[in-house]
Amino acid sequence: MMSTKTKKSVEVKLDFNKWGYVAAPESTDHIRLEKKYGHFINGEFVAPSSGKYYTTYSPSTEKALAEVAKGDAKDIDKAVKAARGAYNKVWKKMPASERGKYLFRIARMIQERARELAVIETMDGGKSIRESRDIDVPLAAAHFFYYAGWADKLDYAFPNRKPESLGVAGQIIPWNFPLLMAAWKIAPALACGNTVVLKPAESTPLTALKLAEIIRDSGLPPGVVNIVNGFGDAGAALVNHPDVNKIAFTGSTDVGKLIQKATAGTGKKLTLELGGKAANIVFDDAPLDQAVEGIINGIFFNQGHVCCAGSRLFVQEGIAEKLIRKLKDRMETLIVGDPLDKNTDIGAINSREQLDKINHYLKVGKEDGAEMWQSSCAIPSKGYFCRPTLFLNASQSHRIVQEEIFGPVLAIQTFRTIEEVIEKANNTPYGLSAGVWTDKGSRIFNMTNKLRAGVVWANTYNKFDPTSPFGGYKESGFGREGGLHGLSAYLKM
Amino acid sequence: MSKLDFSNTPNIDQVSVEERVARLNTRSIKKAAKVQGLKLALNMIDLTTLEGKDTAGKVRQMCYKAMHPHDELEGLPTVAAVCVYPTFVGLAKKELGNSGVKVASVATAFPSGQSTRDIKIKDTKFAVDNGADEVDMVISRGEFLAGNYNYVFDEIAEVKAACGAARLKVILETGELSTLDNVRRASEIAMRAGADFIKTSTGKIQPAATQPVTLVMLEAIRDYYYETGIMIGMKPAGGISTAKSALNYLVMVNETLGNAWMSNQWFRFGASSLANDILMQLAKEASGIYQGPEYFSKD
């Protein structure tokens, strides 16, 4: 418990939410979902070779949304053959400026169908419509626009190095940003002249399949992009397929390690974007109210299902009491519930399995002796939801500090000196991202040099832009996505 | 007693403040929540006329409007107060009678504040002696920008003493303060010197009230409350003319300070044309159709 006996601090409390905002749900009337989705191979939707389908559910209502083809090694082989054929016959030979035009067209079509994509993303994945509408979908379009511009300028990106495409790229993406991750993967691969076989996460396949419709309607030559649905075995078949030149994976560190083993010695080029346990560091001269917003955005964005989430908060001791009080009051204003409601801040946890994992860590945190605090908000009785949670008095050796929870759970530690916080921030197997909050510019540069993280945000958090490279140190992976750096992962030079 | 040091007040990050405002503006206020919010906003208005050409006739008509915003709609509140120059306080007081609508008077050489201390005190006392319930003073921006923070502090404290029982609103004139750091600093000075309300603007300088400035002031009020348990009111003034933007301001108050501030005891809008836009929206909520602007009296 933070000491409350200091100074003349009066027992005063703020209360919120007397003025209840009436629910403002986004309409789903305009959404067209097929009953059954096949794989997207060679420019058309095809039934799985096994004939097997699985159901994708909405995590906020627990209702079935669609049946989706369950891919296996045969489907993967078919898709890789289609990708190889398109690469050799069409895509490799096409003038780069023409490749760019297709990407521009896909970007525009994503914008045109933005509302539909946002609603489906929210239905299938559980994230709030505010985020899918304002972040996921616009950023997905922005990635296509950005890489479309590079397609015919690769020689300028890498002067005198004669960049060439790799061939067929196998891409496996996670469930936390289904459409955005598909865009991150597909756009640079195509811009560099490769063809693609993409496997979406099993719990969130629908927006990738909508993207497949867009790709088909854009007139992109058949086979340039192929999408095979399914589970881990389909992913493994893709990783192990002998005719794939490149694997790009975003997901858990455990699976990333398996993929690295599987691709070792095969000559396949590999990029991995894995887990994280980012330090978000607040110094005593920071603009506190704005830092609170950054902390909220850092850990509660997308229910905390973010590999770069600021899940470890380090607060300089002199301001800890004040900051935590502000943070708690801010958390009381967060609205948790129906993700389709435009006022919802925190939507549904992506799956029952993930909710169980988060609840397990809540138990572990308490057992290890950290003090748990949750906002008093109501949560729906149906669907998978978790109140925004703090752990106070967390220690470096607590499991909630060491392990990635991937939920709306923030572990708070205090620090005294700059050396101490750098050591603690770096004392993790991960190294994807970090945040620094201070009014002092020189301190920011000092910190960014010493933090072992691929991305360091200063006085902001979870800021994404296609022009900026993103990727990790240590067990958070290797290779960069986004920006100029994101091109080199899809080229041989 | 040693002087308070205002050279080192909390830092403000402008970019993040603007992002926070943008996020608050994504709140969707519909149906019952909208009606409730609009009525509350109407009840928070300081209906204002502060022109060189003000006359008794103008003030009289505005006072009637303050008490009867739109009699065709049932269940409407009055506005909170009328805001006039000191010379019209006596008249306004008489017109408003026991309606509950307060009389607020600007004072202290409004709007520039460029006068001597004793004239400012006399100005204040004149307004209070004529029956002003509230005094809206301006701070000396020149002294503030010259770094004479304690001059500004002392002046506010003296005006507060001259107010007696009248509540004091301190106008920072944020359009002349240039940075959000300065807005925060001026807020600290005003609250600690005895302000009952802090207020953004005179309405005579552009920009007048903005959401980022208001958010920074609300956060200053929150910190002062955390520290002392004392509530300070907030009044954005100037430039808020639509019902939609009034709701955006209310969302900011609701999610920064919470329930306790959601009344005209603690939050006001300084505005002249806002009332009619709110009335138009309320009439639309009641009847389902928009009426033209000529159906609402322009006093």
Structure description:
The complex is a heterodimer of chains A (493) and B (299). In chain A, 39% of the residues lie in helices and 16% in strands. Chain A has 493 residues and is an alpha/beta fold. A 7-stranded mixed sheet of chain A has the order 14-15-16-13-12-17-18, with helices on both faces. The termini of chain A are far apart. Chain B contains 11 helices and 8 strands. Chain B has an 8-stranded parallel sheet with strand order 7-6-5-4-3-2-1-8. In chain B, α2 packs antiparallel against α11, α3 (56-67) runs parallel beside α4 and α7 packs across α8 (180-193). The chains are: A alpha/beta (493), B alpha/beta (299).
The low-pLDDT segments of chain B are none
What is the mean predicted local confidence, pLDDT of chain B? 96
Strand content of chain B: 5-15%
Count every helix of chain B, treating DSSP H or I runs of 4 or more residues as helices.
11
Q: Which bin fits the share of residues in helices of chain A? A: 25-40%
Label the overall shape of chain B.
globular
Of all chain pairs, the largest interface belongs to: A-B, 33 and 36 residues
Task: Give the helices and strands of chain B as they follow along the chain.
Answer: HHEHEHEHEHHEHEHEHEH
Give the topology, please:
The complex is a heterodimer of chains A (493) and B (299).
Chain A: E1 36-37, E2 39-41, E3 44-46, E4 53-57, E5 64-69, H1 73-91, H2 96-112, H3 114-125, H4 129-150, H5 154-157, E6 164-165, E7 168-172, H6 178-191, E8 195-199, H7 206-217, E9 225-227, H8 232-240, E10 246-250, H9 253-263, E11 269-273, E12 279-282, H10 288-300, E13 312-316, H11 317-332, H12 352-367, E14 371-374, E15 389-392, H13 399-402, E16 409-415, H14 418-426, E17 433-437, H15 441-450, E18 455-458, E19 477-478, H16 483-488, E20 491-492
Parallel strand pairs in A: 1-5, 7-8, 7-10, 8-9, 10-11, 12-13, 12-17, 13-16, 15-16, 17-18
Antiparallel strand pairs in A: 2-3, 4-5, 6-20, 11-19, 14-15
Helix pairs in contact in A: 1-8, 2-4, 3-4, 4-6, 10-11
Chain B: H1 14-24, H2 31-43, E1 45-48, H3 56-67, E2 81-84, H4 89-96, E3 102-107, H5 117-129, E4 134-138, H6 141-145, H7 149-163, E5 167-171, H8 180-193, E6 197-199, H9 211-228, E7 233-235, H10 243-256, E8 269-271, H11 274-287
Parallel strand pairs in B: 1-2, 1-8, 2-3, 3-4, 4-5, 5-6, 6-7
